[in-house]
């Protein structure tokens, strides 16, 4: 069996995009007014939205069910409120995961006490079991923890090191066969991830995303630059679908002159 990983890039300028004034958003997959039959989901991964919300604005109270919804904070402050009674202000390094289960309502607003827009990624996954009660989790990972290493920040319930505590250490528990790793790569540094094992030995799916940390850009990707394996180059806002056998390596190397913040999904 070949150990090669196949990649299909998803370039920044090709992502779905909308500028509503109060919200500047990119969609990796079909979402809201952006619909493309080629990009509906990838395994259990359904949504990657890279959002920037203006001061005093945000997503008012709305409902969800049967999705695993997590917010990955890049900069600014995001105020979360939900029908389970949770109220929290999320900051850089926070990951908030809502397992919507049978149904919740929530709001996500730029925190009014902060003068800056909030930049975060909203990620949805399809649960492997339906009809579960809704739950809320929060985890925090510092820049130092993620520096030049791949840190598991989300992992399936039942995985070693994953606890179902509202707040705690280790990855946030997701009810999907999906792992999420995060890294901040210094110039010249690289990390390698080997696809995890599948229960039935089937090929794994992956997705990489380079976060737009240097600023909003709806055109051709600029900013930090990484090389994936031997010949794929990604800049800020770029992503790539990956597929390969379990154990196959994915190497991410920062070949630019600034830090690169990268997310890597490993999906059964």
UniProtKB/TrEMBL annotation:
Stretches assigned to the Pirin N-terminal domain: 17-124
InterPro entries in the cross-refs: Pirin (IPR012093), Pirin_N_dom (IPR003829), RmlC-like_jellyroll (IPR014710), RmlC_Cupin_sf (IPR011051)
Gene3D superfamilies cross-referenced by the UniProt entry: Jelly Rolls
Family, per entry: Belongs to the pirin family.
Protein's name in the database: Pirin N-terminal domain-containing protein
Organism: Serendipita indica (strain DSM 11827) (Root endophyte fungus)
């Amino acid at each position: 069996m070949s150990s090669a990983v196949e990649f299909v890039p998803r370039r920044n300028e090709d992502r779905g995009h909308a500028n509503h004034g109060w919200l500047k958003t990119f969609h990796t997959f079909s979402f809201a007014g952006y619909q493309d039959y080629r990009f509906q989901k990838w395994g259990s991964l359904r949504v990657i939205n890279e959002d920037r919300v203006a001061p005093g604005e945000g997503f008012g109270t709305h409902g969800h069910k049967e999705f695993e919804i997590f917010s990955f904070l890049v900069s600014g402050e995001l105020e979360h409120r939900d029908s389970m009674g949770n109220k929290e202000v999320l900051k850089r390094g926070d990951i908030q995961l809502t397992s919507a289960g049978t149904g919740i309502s929530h709001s996500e607003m730029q925190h009014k006490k902060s003068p800056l827009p909030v930049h975060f990624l909203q990620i949805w996954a399809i649960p492997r079991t339906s009809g579960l009660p809704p739950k809320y989790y929060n985890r925090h990972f510092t820049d130092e923890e993620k520096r030049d290493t791949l840190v598991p920040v989300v992992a399936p319930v039942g995985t070693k090191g994953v606890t179902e505590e509202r707040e705690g250490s280790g990855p946030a528990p997701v009810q999907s066969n999906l792992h999420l790793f995060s890294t901040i790569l210094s110039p010249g540094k690289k990390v390698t991830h080997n696809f995890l094992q599948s229960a039935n030995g089937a090929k794994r799916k992956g997705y990489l995303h380079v976060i737009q940390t240097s600023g909003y850009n709806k055109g051709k990707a600029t900013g930090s630059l990484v090389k994936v394996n031997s010949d794929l180059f990604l800049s800020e806002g770029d992503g790539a679908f990956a597929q390969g056998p379990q154990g196959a390596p994915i190497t991410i190397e920062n070949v630019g002159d600034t830090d690169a913040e990268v997310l890597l999904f490993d999906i059964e």
